[in-house]
Amino acid sequence: MKKSLTFPLSLLLVEDEKMSQEMLARLLEPRVSRLWIASNGKEALELYQENTPDVVLTDLVMPEMDGMELIERIKGLNPEATVVISTAFYELGFLMRAIELGVFGYLTKPLSFQGLEETLRKCHRRVELLRAHEELEVKNHHLKIAYDQLREAKEQEKELFIYKERYHQSHQEEAFKKQIKLMRSDLSNSYESGIFFNLFYEPLDILSGDAYGSVRLGEGRCLFYAIDAMGKGLSASLASIQSVSFLNYQLRPSKALDEFDFEAYIQAFLSFIRTQLLNNELLSASFILMEEKGEKIRYALFGMPPLWVMDERGKVRELVSNNPPHLSAL
């Protein structure tokens, strides 16, 4: 059995979850020369100012002061501080900000023994290099070591970014598959009441706020809707998934489609989505109801591009948006 190593490092552990804190403390105590423990960012900053540990191992999501603010404060005190993130939170924006701040390493929860020991080994190597660099600066020679250290740090940042980008990409693709599965498309490439329906959907981003639905209501009636949650990424995608799920639920088989009320359907959706949007979000939508075998169209557009419709005489008509985009409840 491989014997665990003890590294000549002082380390500050920042973890608000009690069980995780106790588990990490048991793993770290025999492997570092000095260990301080904090349960939140505010307490951790005080301990860092008092002791200046070699390494800070911190969670991101914590009360009083979160991990990202703690890192910013520590980097303000010591730009060369060796900080490692330990979290199960994968939002790409946070990771990019961590790279910008110069975070040295990243540990994914649940932690593994091998991953933790390898990270300590890398931290020890970096701390030793920093100490050597400080001595060499005082003596004013061997400047090449400083250059090599900078190059290594940049390579580590690049490797961290590439790994997290691939991981995030795979999760985006899985979320997109779920979004596609939720979208109802009764009329795609179909022939209904003398009308051929050809629907095309290709969002620019994997996770986007774009979604649509086409529903066969019976008696020559067809319903179409399109959703555009402004922005991109996870938040916009969730808004569109919430919208599609609600709109489909309102058309569940247990409800009589022959009693479908177009205005009530839209009002129910607006009442629902208004409570789901964040303060900085807005959502555009189109609702189109074709009746009497395509001879009559009812529509409601909320901040969406105009509809182009050709009548039986071949004349193209522009149906412009008749409502503003929808905002969150204040």
UniProtKB/TrEMBL annotation:
This is TWO-COMPONENT RESPONSE REGULATOR. InterPro entries: CheY-like_superfamily (IPR011006), PPM-type-like_dom_sf (IPR036457), PPM-type_phosphatase-like_dom (IPR001932), Sig_transdc_resp-reg_receiver (IPR001789), ST_Response_Regulator (IPR052048). Residues 133-160 form a coiled coil. Keywords: Coiled coil, Phosphoprotein. It comes from the Bacteria. The modification 4-aspartylphosphate is found at residue 59. Residues 10-124 form the Response regulatory domain. Pfam families: Response_reg, SpoIIE. Signal peptide: none annotated. PROSITE patterns: RESPONSE_REGULATORY. GO terms for biological process: phosphorelay signal transduction system. The keyword rRNA processing does not apply.
